[in-house]
Amino acid sequence: MQNIKKFESRVRSYSRAFPVTFKLAKDAYLYDEQDNAYLDFLCGAGSINYGHNNEEIKKKVIDYLDSDGIVHGLDLATTAKEEFLKTFSSLILEPRELNYKVQFTGPTGTNAVEAALKLARKVTGRTNIISFTNGFHGVSLGPLAATGNSGHRGGSGVPLTNVTFMPYDGYFGNKSNTIDYVRRFLEDTSSGVDLPAAFIVETIQGEGGINVAKDSWLKSLYELCKEFEILLIVDDIQVGCGRTGSFFSFEQSEITPDMVVLSKSLSGFGLPFSMLLLKPELDIWKPGEHNGTFRGNNLAFVSATETLKKYWSTQKFESEINKKSQLLKSELERIVKKHLSADMEVRGKGLIFGVDCRSPDLAKQLADRAFENRLILERCGSEDQVVKFMPPLTADIETIEAGLRIFEKSIEQLTANSEIQLEVKKRTEQN
């Protein structure tokens, strides 16, 4: 860590939370310089859905490099790109009866969100975007304007404009339907809210605290968009590519977004790769109007194609994820009920779950102690009060159970401390 601290910018974050130097990674584990194994339930913030150095995917990448396959090609036509597009269409889009054009953007999720917002404004001629409380869409200026967290917004250096925030599902509690609230603003020409070009929404807010939108809420939002001729953008960067159990997180909601943003685990191998799916009638770009030197990573095309063929050619993988989801959910609920407080909610879907500790201090102590016990867990939420669980989708039952045992052990160690006992007691009494 000496050279990291000496030379790297203060903006670094994960190396502060997990202060060791890692050198190897395999499947669900990271290994430090002393060969200590850490169970990775962070998974590159959702970029390593299929585990570290997945053997079959890695072999395809190595074979492609050995054959002098094109690594960088701007947006030239390449065999790797053609094979990816054919596979993505036949295995993902066609079985779900989705008709989208594919736009390859710059390599990060925020690049794809920039393209989506820019295109929505171009198509509709409107400037306003509606985002939601606790949403996170990236930290370049366009997506940052649509990101709710004040800590991220504070780094912009300029006013963040042309975005209106509305309450996400459950923001006022479970008894309030926030779609009714949003509708009132759109109906009233004196509300002060300009008719937007688009809504941008995460079906599960990852950085926002594992807030899960109900299918009925998403369906109502979709119908609202149709009624007012507003585009709907689903940001599936963190919870797409199988994280919720289906390839797209919105599939059970019976909606068809106008645009879908994908990144993180799209490559299947941790390689930079992002793209925007858009309905054909929205594809009004002029050639080169939105571009970038690294739009279309050919190595990522190769790894993504192999990932799709290996995991998404049948229903088996989805079925396995959902079985492991039931285990993760039930065990987290048991652990929280036994050792913590009834008001510390467990929420999530598929293989993304969060334990809302209500207290950022308690969440930090739990994550820190878990790391000492060699389990890597991230925190999220408006105050980092939620401990997030994101094991690899490919992790077997035994691996998930191992992580849960470490988490439970970490709680037991902490609750032996009188100060932690008082914190848990306080939470219980408040409930």
Q: Which stretches of 5+ consecutive residues score pLDDT under 50?
A: none
Mean pLDDT: 94
Class by helix and strand content?
alpha/beta
- What top-tier CATH class of the largest domain fits best? Alpha Beta
Distance between the termini: 42 Å
Outline type: globular
Q: Kindly give the count of domains.
A: 2
CATH superfamily of the largest domain: Type I PLP-dependent aspartate aminotransferase-like (Major domain)
How many distinct beta strands?
17
Quaternary structure annotation: single chain
* Largest sheet composition: 7 strands, mixed
C-alpha Rg, in Å?
A: 22 Å
Strand order of the largest sheet: 4-12-11-10-7-5-6
Output the number of helix runs.
Answer: 15
Assigned CATH architecture of the largest domain: 3-Layer(aba) Sandwich
CATH topology of the largest domain, by name, is: Aspartate Aminotransferase, domain 2
Name the helicity range: 40-55%
Percent of residues in β-strands: 5-15%
Structural notes for this entry:
The chain is of the alpha/beta class and 431 residues long. The protein has 2 domains: 2-53 and 315-430, Aspartate Aminotransferase, domain 1 (Alpha-Beta Complex), CATH 3.90.1150.10; 58-311, Type I PLP-dependent aspartate aminotransferase-like (Major domain) (Aspartate Aminotransferase, domain 2, 3-Layer(aba) Sandwich), CATH 3.40.640. Helices cover 40% and strands 15% of the residues. The chain has 15 helices and 17 strands. The strands form 4 sheets. Strands 4-12-11-10-7-5-6 form a 7-stranded mixed β-sheet, sandwiched between helices. It is globular and about 60 Å long. It starts with a helix and ends with a helix. The model has no long low-confidence stretch (mean pLDDT 94).
